[in-house]
Amino acid sequence: MGHPPLEFSDCYLDSPDFRERLKCYEQELERTNKFIKEVIKDGNALIAAIRGYSSAVQKFSQTLQSFQFDFIGDTLTDDEINIAESFKEFAELLQEVELERSMMVQNASDLLIKPLENFRKEQIGFTKERKKKFEKDGEKFYSMLDRHLHLSSKKKESQLQEADLQVDKERHNFFESSLEYVYQIQEVQESKKFSIVEPVLAFLHSLFTYNNLTVELTQDFLPYKQQLQLSLQNTRNHFSSTREELEDLKKRMKEAPLTCKLPGQPTIEGYLYTQEKWALGISWVKYYCQYEKEAKTLRMTPIDQKPGAKQGTLDLTLKSCVRRKTDSIDKRFCFDIETNERSGTITLQALSEANRRLWMEAMDGKEPVYHSPITKQEEMELNEVGFKFVRKCINAVETKGITTEGVYRTVGSNIQVQKLLNAFFDPKCPGDVDLQSGDWDIKTITSSLKFYLRNLSEPVMTYKLHKELVLAAKSENLDYRLGAIHALVYKLPDKNREMLELLIQHLVNVCEHSRDNLMSPSNMGVIFGPTLMRAQEDTVAAMMNIKFQNIVVEILIEHFGKIYSGPPEDTTAPPVPPPRVAARRHKPITISKRPLRERPVFFGASVEESGAERLGQTPNGGGMEAPRPLQRSRPPAPRPGGDEPGRAPAEGRPQPRTEPEPGRPGARLQDGGVKPAGKAANGVVASPALRSGTLQARRPAPRPGGNRDGECDGVPKPRSHGDKPVIMRPPVRPPDPPCRTPVPPKLEQKPDLIAGTAEEMPSSVVASRTKFFETASRRTGSSSSPQGRIPGDES
């Protein structure tokens, strides 16, 4: 139960019950003061925590932006470009988020801390001053009254009259202080309802507005996230494909180091030691040697030069090479060479016996060493049997398992694959295998097809066109990519082009069932890129181009209809486009350069808005609609056969749009006037791009049939225990604090009571006090104000 009101007439009686009720008000005032201090303390801590979090996020974004990806090779794929730019995009997005947060934090103190501090100091502090004056005047009055009652009646009449006047004056001062104090403490008790809640509401609104903007940024981020995830998955697939080839190359390098050479490199190269004869003896000098067999040129670059020596690279022409006998020199692994540039023989020392054999074989030494040839898998040919095998495999896949999940990605048993290939390519009866029978599963058939294509003596797309196809895939111009690959396809030999068309047509059919088999053109490119294309040299640089081989196959699948509709007008590949000066034709995915949304101003921006804006002017000069005042009425009694529970009313329950809603807290000012509001919720002019339903629970559209039971004119009935609360934003900005509102005109007051007090009171207190007296007069129906004669004063 609330506190009983303090009547002004009780100030005259000053009864014990009045004092007890006044004490309850004072205890409530002290509790409110303590609560405001806690809110201010915790609010400052929250604002400081938000600032600290914002600083940490900004530092994190700076760290992301400072990193730059490096790459292997001379060109990046589109997916790799997106990944390389991702940290910059992340950083710019975080900075955009923190910009919004910094705006919110800058206004937080003005919205929450300052209004509460002002209320505590101006209202509660002023009330405590009134209390001191009340207690002081009361003590003075009652002490004088005690002395007055002890005066003897035998004193002179003039002295008694003068004493009566003194007592009456002190009684008047005490009653005036009592009235002022009672009025002030009741005013604070009533005004705290909006003076305390309003700043917290404003702060929460700014916080939720920021959260709403963050949600919008998240929705803007989702398409970029999906595209980046696709680029990451494609790059991971390319990496897996390249890693398998590199592991195979590494294994072959361990078996025979000189099998993997780049074209144009020397026949053999490596470190050799040369015997040098000096005046004081013989020494061995380390050289890095490179020998070209066709030109018989030997380049020797000294490694361990002596201090002061001016010996440079030696270019020699080989005449002969002879292995050095073991018993003729105390060093191992030696051989002698003769050159045109030097007279006599040059003794060289290899690093091992096997290394010496390789050098002597390359130089056609007199005792060449025959080492065992490198075992190589038996190669297959693109012949009639091969075409028959490919067609049978394609028919089997399209008949038995085109919708199988992971078709061509799932690997079959090596034993079964070899069994199928041996049976099909048996010289006695080639092609005499029924792939439609149940003896061969889909995994075995697809793995056999890939094995056959990969082990052709020359890949389907030929060594000759390999570099041109990779160069076309590396182009940044998408039109050039397609045109160049289109032209190069028709440069293939007839049987190769026929085989390629047969395979790509099949892959297109497989990709059309990607919803079932999960095999997209990109996935097919990863599988068939290394199968249909292969570099002639086995090097790491060639392996790093596998991702571009995958892109070539992906383009063939996606543009099959155009490429195989006929040869281009000019079968030669288009010229290589010049170095890029303008922007890319294929722009990398980005989020930071998207069109910015129109941002609503924060809640606190209205504190400093101009008078024109308060009268309904938008920043663009347009007017704003004002909500209707709240119409309160008693809820009607439930009608039999009325509306169903939970059905939305036809009137009084607004749609979840941004229109202002009457019947909500904050729709009226404390003086009974209506504050103009914008067409958007919370006093914000909403833009088309701004989604209003983010923080607002969605409600069904109104249905005909009236309101729900217990609701009338937009006033909902109290929610029962089982009902779920509906969280809604306040439709308009709550009224300004009392200290911000214009001061209404004062009533004429007698100077004897307000003299010396108006200067002590703040302007907000004076305004509220005047209004409170006016309200009290209307309630009592009396035309006299409390500033007039004190009831019961007959002196």
TrEMBL record:
A Pfam family that the UniProt record links to this protein: PH
Record note on quaternary structure: Interacts with HOMER1. Interacts with AMPA receptor complexes. Interacts with SH3GL2 (endophilin-A1). Interacts (via C-terminus) with NR1D1.
Protein origin, superkingdom: Eukaryota
Protein name as catalogued: Oligophrenin-1
Domain Rho-GAP, chain residue ranges per copy: 380-564
Gene name of the record: OPHN1
Cross-referenced InterPro entries: AH/BAR_dom_sf, BAR_dom, GRAF_fam, OPHN1_BAR, PH-like_dom_sf, PH_domain, PH_GRAF, Rho_GTPase_activation_prot
Species the sequence originates in: Lepidothrix coronata (blue-crowned manakin)
Domain PH: 265-368
Subcellular location(s) per record: Cell projection, Dendrite; Cell projection, Dendritic spine; Cytoplasm; Presynapse
Compositional bias segments (type: Basic and acidic residues): 706-726
GO cellular component terms, A-Z: actin cytoskeleton; cytoplasm; dendritic spine; terminal bouton
